C-alpha cells in the first residue's frame, strides 16, 4: 500500500510539473536536488511509509494488550480454585502482624 501511494504521489507530482508548469521529466528530477526539493521528496517518502508505521503501531498495541491480559491471568492458577466463603472468612479475621 505504501509503495503504491508513493508511486501515485510521485506520478501526480510529475504530471503537475509537466502539464502545470511545462517541466520535462529531467527538470522534475533536477528539482529534487536543492534542499527544498530534498525536503519535498523526503515528505513524499514519509507519506509512502505511513501504512508501514500504522501496521507497526497496531502490532505494538496488540502486543501490549496481550501482555496486560497475560499478566492478569498469570496470578490466577487453576489449582487455587475459586475463593470459598470459608477461605475469605479466614482471611477477614486473621490477625495482622
Counted beta strands: 0
In terms of per-residue confidence, which ranges show pLDDT below 50 for 5 or more consecutive residues? 87-92
CA distance, first residue to last residue: 63 Å
Topology as a string of helices (H) and strands (E): HHHHH
Mean pLDDT: 75
Q: What is the oligomeric state here? A: single chain
Please indicate the percent range of residues in DSSP E strands (runs of 2 or more): under 5%
**Helical stretch count?**
5
Q: How would a textbook summarize the main sheet?
A: none
| Share of residues in helices | over 70%
* Cα shape: elongated
Radius of gyration: 30 Å
The secondary structure category is mainly alpha
Write out key terms for the chains shown.
97 residues, mainly alpha, 0% strand, elongated
Give a verbal description of the structure:
The protein has 97 residues and is mostly helical. It has a domain at 9-72. The chain contains 5 helices and no strands. Helix 1 runs antiparallel to helix 3. The longest helix is centred in the middle third of the chain and has 25 residues, at 50-74. The protein is elongated and about 60 Å long. The protein starts with a helix and ends with a helix. Mean pLDDT is 75; it is low at 87-92.
